[in-house]
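Anyone opening a protein record will find just a pair of labelled lines. With that in mind, the following record should read easily:
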Amino acid sequence: METVDTIVAVGTPNGESALALVRASGPACESLAREIFSRSGSLQPRHAYHGSYRSAAGTVMDDVVYCLYQGPKSFTGEDTLEITCHGNPLIASGILTDLIARGCRQSEPGEFSRRAFLNGRMDLTQAEAVMELIQARSDKAIQAAHNQLRGAFGRQLGILKERMLANVATIEAYIDFPEEDLPEEQKEAYVTGIQELMTFCSRLIDSSQYAAFLRDGVKTLILGEPNAGKSSLLNLLLGFERAIVSEQPGTTRDFLRERIILGPHSIQLLDTAGLREAESDIEQEGIRKTIELAEEADIFLLVRDTALPSPELPEAIASKLSAANCIVLRNKVDLGVSDPGPNPVAGAKSIEFSALTGHGLEALRAALLEMIDARFSTDDDDLILVNARHGVALNELRDCLQSALKKLEDDEAMELVASDLRGAMDAIGSILGRIDNEDMLDVLFSSFCIGK
């Protein structure tokens, strides 16, 4: 893609810092560097130079380090100039304003990544991974984004497309050249091949649950009766007083949402209203919200007061709890009164706990890590960044493969089978971005931050 304008943006967040980065991309980058830094000799690409940034009016704006990247060996695939100045926002903004005065254009959100995609420097899954990497909230999410940025997901889809292309080419050879001396057509081989493709496609679709966990964190719902210690547990896990703690039961009417990092994982903690017969409309609404949140929770922490009998849980919540997703905390053991009673969740891990003293906190963290690793970890990190856009295309891909398989089994015309397989390849193309769809690209890249 040839561009006639040179775009520019500040590539670091707003606010004071030690350094700030101003980035330009386009055909004017080299001439800008020569003009701004009064260089008459050649500029060595990928070489860091130190110089004084002079505005168009001749004023020295800052002492900077600058580097020219020549296309196509740059992030965007075109000439790129990066200027590292001191991190005073006024300096970075002043340099940006000066570059615009020299004929550059302020970039749109995601325009640098968009140019990289349009210039063939990355496929669309890699472009999306740039934003995934910026927004990653755990070590696992960073690792997954790096894998996708290096093209792992795109390569997997490329292999899938090549295998389908081979099937289509063979089928169309028999359609287009029926009189040629070709080997006898083996429909059984096509059936086997499509079934293998469907299995691979299903693995990608199934991985979308793991991708959601990486983006949003493990949704962990704190449950229990009023005054069992749910809010105290939240405060203890966070390390600061987030929830109001009172001896009066029922102080939590709405739910609180906070996030912590545990090992390589991000955990979304949800503190909920106490479960009991509601005494007011507001409390009843809080309990209804708790039941609603249970529908989407991944893990449950059931807090019970050891001085009281095991709580009776609403059926809508009890049906969601199991040994695989619930940890029971027998709270207030520091009071010296303990009635273990029956475990309210059969087979679930039970931990003696004190939200007041922190007794049992390390055991809880270890149990949480063990549960998360058992339920959400995967050894195949290439298959874990399936977002909603990918999911739609993958479902379309699977539908096309299922349709082709049924036509083969029903002995329908091979032209129809080939048409379904071409539809499957189009679905893969929509994921990788090898399509002519300007509106889709506008929507996708508009969610990026300025400077990317």
